Amino acid sequence: MLPRCEPFRMEASADYVQFVEELLRALLTVRHASVEVAPEFKRLKYKLALADALFDLCRHSVSASLDALALFSAVEEELGKRMCNAKIVLLLNQLDREADAEDYATPCGLSAKRLHLQNPDIPTQPWWTLKDPRLPGWIRQLGQSAVAKRIRSDLWRCVAKEPGAFDDSANDWYFVGSRHRWTGLNLMHSARGGWQRWCSSCARETCERLRWRMDLNYTLWDELRGAIRGANYPPPMYVNFYALAPGAHIIPHLGNDLRLTVHLALSVPARNQSRIRVADKTVNYTRTGQLLVFDDAYDHEVWNDAESIRYVLGMTIWHPELLKSVARGHRLLPPVPQHNFALCWRGKTGFKTDLLAVCRGRVLCNRTKGA
């Protein structure tokens, strides 16, 4: 019998459907482990699959976290050795068992306080200063007062015109424990066809400012993958308006390697009531225009202790060490989204023409200058 996973607050029928889908995924994982492996390993694989399912779906619950930890420990006992599983370190830290986390991590060559999954061939650090010469200059420009205000205007326009678009919350059950607590409006996503339709409606200026940046161009993967050993899969790349609900806590988790994360604060609670911890350093969100750059391959978590929503523009960029392999001045056209809406790509200085219209799929392209 599966241990109970509580609390789950079903606020709408759509929430219930998604919960059932995720639970079925977890159950199918367990079933696969019990059916597809050799008989002598069935019990071990079953326990490991169940521990993973509890970790993924129920870790916001203390009782489920304890159950997951017990299952991981049982697997290690049967193996007769330590798996050096980063999930165990996360669970121990989440349960305030920091000494146990350190005892587990140290023999594995891990750091319980600076746990990360960054590729070993890339120089790594949890926090990046804006003065770091490896960061592109356009990131610093986002923090300029006038620029931040224009991006915030796009945010408010999207909140007013498209409130239902803040539904990019596939992970909020995993990390928050309830739907609609950590949501986002997705402006660009590498797995969803690139730049999204909001770029032609409520977020035109934000998208226009960002869409040509090489650091955001996920189509560079085929060119970048050979630069780093073991880089077999691209990390998800995205640009989002993120909303974190009052009282929400995103529990500790690990992101993806080969990229950095940038947060531009757009509307943050007063009196430093919202904060983010990456590795062993916590930083408060303090003002509109504040810029934070961090490596989300490190263990990190976020709090909003206020009674108002925290909004940020969040985006991922290629890790600067990866982009060293790309020839200076090289640019690839950003992909056109697979949506049916009018969109015109305007050329920049250095292109052979001053106007580029790229058509693909059902996208309608307008070649009229200024459209």
TrEMBL record:
SUPFAM superfamilies: Clavaminate synthase-like. Residues 237-320 form the Aspartyl/asparaginy/proline hydroxylase domain. It comes from the Eukaryota. PANTHER family: ASPARTYL BETA-HYDROXYLASE, ISOFORM L, ASPARTYL/ASPARAGINYL BETA-HYDROXYLASE. Belongs to the aspartyl/asparaginyl beta-hydroxylase family. This is Aspartyl/asparaginy/proline hydroxylase domain-containing protein.
